[in-house]
Amino acid sequence: MSTDLWETLKSIGNAMEVNRLQRETEEAARQAAAAAKAAAGAPQIIARYLTAGGATVDVIERAGYFDQDGFTETHAACSGCPAKHTVEWGWDAWAAEVGQPQENFDEGGNRSTPQAREWAQEHAEKCRAMPKPEAK
Fold it and tell me: What is the block-wise mean pLDDT of the chain (136 residues), using blocks of 10 residues?
């Protein structure tokens, strides 16, 4: 094999390797962006209260039933009984659709979250339910 041919084959191989690495890097970036988006929209526990029976009442902020990226409600649920409580932040889907301002929207749940936390604490003080057993 001549030196010129060998050099040409090496440069083709290097270009193919560079292309493969670029594809892998782009795919990793896409996966990281998808994971970050999922984590940003995933509900996070912002408060947890222990019930008299040993269960917990968890308070989370979540997107609710609207198809959008941000949170629109605060939700509290007992892990020992079926009790739950949701406080909507006043998101107006119609206003969002037509580009109107969200006049009554409680941005960040500043008024709504304390209401859900108060309910959760009151429920935890009274609830005697034990935690639901985990499935095995």
Answer: 72 78 83 65 84 93 72 89 89 74 74 90 93 75
